[in-house]
Each structure stands twice: as C-alpha cells, then as structure tokens.
Amino acid sequence: MTVLVLLSVLGLITLFSGFSSDKKLPIYLGIVGLAVVLGFNFMGWDLAHNAYNMVVADNYSIAFTTIMTFSTIFILFLLPDFSEKVEVPLAEITSLLLFTLFGAYLMVSYSNLVMLFIGIEILSISLYILAGSKKSNTASNEAAMKYFLMGSFATGFLLFGITLIYGATGSFDLGTIKTFVTDHAADTSTLLLVGVILMLIGLAFKISAAPFHFWAPDVYQGSPSLVTGFMATVVKTAGIAAFFKLFYTCFIPLADSWRTTIWVMAALTMTIGNITALYQTTFKRMLAYSSIAHAGYLLLALLALNNLSATAILYYATAYSLATIASFAVLITVHQAKQSHSLDSFKGLAKNNPFLAVMATIALCSLAGIPPLAGFFAKFYLFSAVIKEHFYWIVVIAVLNSCVGIFYYFRIIVNMFSPTAEQETIEVSSLYKMVIFVCIILSLVLGLLPDLILRCNL
Amino acid sequence: MEHLKMLPIEHYIFLSTILFCIGVAGVLLRRNAIIILMSVELMLNAVNLLLAAFSVFHGDAAGQVFVFFIMIVAAAEVAVGLAILMVIYRNNHSTDIDLLSKLKW
Prior knowledge:
The complex is a heterodimer of chains A (458) and B (105).
Chain A: H1 2-16, H2 25-43, E1 49-51, E2 55-57, H3 59-86, H4 90-109, H5 113-131, H6 138-169, H7 174-183, H8 190-206, H9 215-222, H10 225-249, H11 255-278, H12 283-304, H13 309-338, H14 349-352, H15 354-368, H16 374-388, H17 392-417, H18 430-448, H19 451-454
Antiparallel strand pairs in A: 1-2
Chain B: H1 9-29, H2 33-58, H3 62-92
C-alpha cells in the first residue's frame, strides 16, 4: 500500500518538476524515486500485506513489480537523449511512464476484480497518450488512435466478463469467486462460463495474443521507439502476470472448458508472430511480431498452471525484458545515425561500431533462445512446466517456432557482420552504452545462474 | 428496489446482451471515429445496466459502486480519446478511420 501511494505521488512530483529550469530534473527524480519504491517494495517480501481485501502485496506481486520497476528505470536512463532528438516533453513522458507503472503494479497485486479493471485502465489510458506523444507525426497519431479504439473495445469485453462472473458468483473478490467456483465445479452455470471466456478475450487483447493481435504491429511501429520498448516489456509482463494470476487463483476447476481455447490461442500466436516476422523489412516491426510470438510462449504457462509456471513466467519475463530493452537501445542508436529502421541499415555495424554489434548479437541470441543466455533457459523452464502436464504437441509447435525465430534473428546478425562500402562511425552516448551493457551482463548472469530467480518462493 | 425484481433476471441479461452486441457491431462496421467512440460507450453502458440489475438481485451494493467506477474511468478514457481525435483531425481534416492506413497491416 505504501508502495502504491509513493509511486502515485512520485508521478505527480515528476509532472510538476517540469516547471523547473533544469530540464533533466524529472528524470533524476524519477530514477531516485523508483529506487526508493523498490526498497519499500522489497521490505514487504514474505509479509503478504493485505490492504482491505483489494490489493495484496504477496511474493508473486513483489517479484513481478520488481522486474517492471527495473525495466522502467532502464527506460528512464534512455529517455534524456531520446527526447532531445525526438522533441517530446520530458516531464510529461516521465510522469506518464510512472503512472503506467502504477497501473501495472495494480494489475499484478489485485485481489478484487475492481482493482484489476482500474489497474488495466490506468495503464492503458497513460499508454494511449504515450503512443501519440509525437503530436505532429501522423504515424504516431495513427498508433495512438488504433491503440485507443482497440484498447477500449477490449475493455468492453473484459467488463462484460467481470459482470457475468459477478452475476454468477455474487462477488468481485477473488477469494469468494474461487470458493464459489470450487463448490459449484460440477454444475457450472452458463453465465459463469461465458464470463470467463469474455474475460479471456479481453485479456488476450491486452497481451496481443492471436487472433486479437492485429493492432499490435501498427501500434508498435507508429509509437516512439522508446515507448514501444516500454510496451513490449513492462506492459506485456503486467498483462501476462494479471492473466495468470486470475486463472491460476480462480478458474482451475473450470480448466476443461477454457484449456482448449488457450491451447489454440498459444499455437496461433506463436506461429503467426514468427512466420510474419520472417517477412518484415524493418527492425522495429520485426521486433513487434517477435513480441507477439513471445506472448504466445508465455501463454504456455497458462496451459500448465502448476507450481512451476509462476516462476517460469517470472524468469521468462525477466530474460525477455532485458534482451528487448537492449535491442531497442540499439535500434534507437542506429535509427538516429541512419534515419532508417530498415534491416539494411544494420549492414556493416560490426565495422562501424564493434561494441554495439556484439551487444546486439548477444541480445538477439537471448531472444532467439541460444544457450547459455537467459532466453534459452527461460524457454527451457517454460516448456518443462508444460511437459509436466503432458501437453506434448504444443511443445513440439513451440520448439519448431523457436527454430523459425532463430532464422530471422540471425538475419540481422548476418547483416551486421556483412561488409559494406560505407565507413561512418556510429556514436553511442555513454548512458546508452551503460544500459545496453548492464542488460547484456544481466542476461549472461541469469543464464549461468538461473537459480537467482528460480529460487524465489512465489 | 423491489419493483425491479418484478421481471426475472433473464430479461435484464437479454437486454444488456443485445445492447452490447449493437455496440460491438457499431465498432466493427462504422468507419467514423466518433461513431466508434459512441459504440464503445454503448458497450460500457450495457455493462452498467447489467451490473446494476445483478446488484439488486444479489442484494449487494458492490455492483452499483462498480458502476460509478466504470462511469468515471469511461469519462477519463473519452477525454483522452477525443484529444487524440482532435490531433488527428488537425493533421488529416477528417475523422474517417480508413485514412489511418499509413502503417501497413
């Protein structure tokens, strides 16, 4: 609870610090404030503090909020140089990022469906503005509008689902719903089943799972690159964590009626994401499709629903966030040097800036799932959680999809190391170097010592 | 509140479902961004109606409190949505969403 209050006050303070003559003050405040929030967050470990049966800060929520806060801190470090080039107002962006994070906090620590709804909305409304923060850029406008229309449409489904569940069970409280569902597992009402499916659709929209993924590539491409990086990491983590928490806590007794839907959805999401990524000509759009594919892998944890899945999601989200932030930092640097997102702009990067090329290679290898990086073990633990529940075919599909993934990630790596006639050096600012380096080192460390996260008692 | 219970709950469910479906059809079929916004509002209000009905039938106030939350959040959402629409109108001089196709599908 303290954490939530601190975070919302921090958002307000950074917003008003925009009046200061020091243009970078909001960033400093944001980073220092988030460090304080992290500290307070850690203090709640193992305490499972329950605030009025609305928000519970159990280990599950603390673990996920920690990852998301770290991702946000990395993004804030990347922000000053980015906003200088793109001319987006710093204080507003910083505070909106913090408000989005606040929504994400609620989404992983709710214990009442009202809080889930409010968390999703706080997150989404801030993101609509962030997506359109380049006001004069028509691509950014278009991204914001598409995101807004699709987001509010999805909210409608989510709300209708919540309402039907309320109608069937008489409560919004997760504990009460769980008791009701367990007691009435034999004679489930249609109302409840339809409610569960509608909520599933609403949440699938939010994590961009096929067949509700069609908005994601456009929104990811049109938004400012740093915001896209934020969406692909923090928002996706929050979405899947909220999704998993709801179904793991409440709806396991009904699993027979929705497991097939998740199975088909996961298979479709992975396949569509990976196959379409093969045909992309720009790096940004390719990363968008790759993030759809990763949502598909993450959906596998909802299929497993055993004691391994929560830690598997946590580990996967960490590995994926680290690699994605590093890739987006590289993308922004290359874009600022060459004014192009196309895959060809990566040609000869190894010669122009060896550091950047090596770091990008490691990040892409982690995304592709090459050992000994964190991305490999993340896939490994996720797939073994699913195999434990005897879903073999979906794992075969997932492994085949990972092979397709390796193909398009390696196309960029080959591009970077291919010779080119141009001899322009690409400058990397020291902050970018630092963030990229830290992300890569953490990917390596987590790959070599996966116990650091897997030991967590969620 | 008792006179609300004169009709069985199924009637409320059917009415809300029909309203909700009209909203969904509006979002999917209409091409004007403002009409789409109105259709989304229709979806949310169908939900509000059903929540209030369930709340009465369960004899539980939580449902009606949730209705207020939905109204407030919907207002915030519309404020942001109309701002985005204004920016687009300034750049395109139209609210037709078919113009929003610069990013390839």
